[in-house]
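Q: Hi! First time doing this. I have a protein sequence and I read that you can turn it into a structure. Is that right? Here it is:
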Amino acid sequence: MEGSEFEKALYAVNPRIREILVRLPDGVKRNTEEIRLRADLPLSVTIGGDTAFVKEDGQTVFSLEKSLPKVTAKDMEESFSLLCRGSVYAHEQELKNGFVMMRNGCRAGVFGTLCENGCMQDVTSINIRIARAMRGVADEIIKSLKPGGLLIAGPPGSGKTTVLRDLIRQVSNGAAGKPRRIAVIDSRGELGGSYGVKRINDLGGNTDVLLVADKAKGIEIALRTMFPDIIAFDEIGTVAELRSAEESFHAGVEIYTTAHIGKAEELLKRRVTSRLLLGGAIARVALLPAYHRGNPEIISVKELYRASVG
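A: Yes, that's right. Below is the predicted 3D structure, encoded as structure tokens:
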């Protein structure tokens, strides 16, 4: 389906729900971050981090009303089939991790019954995240970018992936000096918006993308085979990923990654991020405000450490 990023994502919902969603005002469509379908519950969208429920006529309200149309079991079944393009088996590995990569570079979270064999059955929730490549959101970081690894940190919904994506594009194209080779480890397809061999999002002209579920293994592969200046990946969270990042740092490769936090001091209290920062792999932290509001605060690891002990 041609049109906006919102409209392109509507192939994954069945005709009845699609007819309601297309009635949304253009301003709502432009600012929608998620489309949420829940069996036997009202249809909703996420705007600025807040939930808005969708009425039959396409108008939105921010409180539950009895007249709100509900998503039926049939709607869920048909939408799940459309999301998987008629082949659940083709998305089996993704579904084991609770999501489906969409053909337009978006990602849909899927909840239901996850069986022991990894099969997803009786789908009760679908959350379609509207991925938008926003140029310029990393400008403030680029202005103060210096050699060394960078951690982009902030609460959920603050735009960490969006900022990382734009940072990769700009650094790859030479915005911080000469173009630099960047290896992107894309575990969920959100950075490149990869769908098969097609890359939806612009990550610059000097970037290689590896779509792999195991980020730690992907970092190792990139280090050994692509000889990058920088390895970038989203959401560091495991000791295995930390070890691979440390190995890359000791090999002279910079690391760009992200982390979920509520407050800056959490970074030095968590095992993985603390080791990442204090071990030298990260030189600076870009702290993002909630929901894309305002510019990031960029501080050195030394400043962060002094603030934590002071």
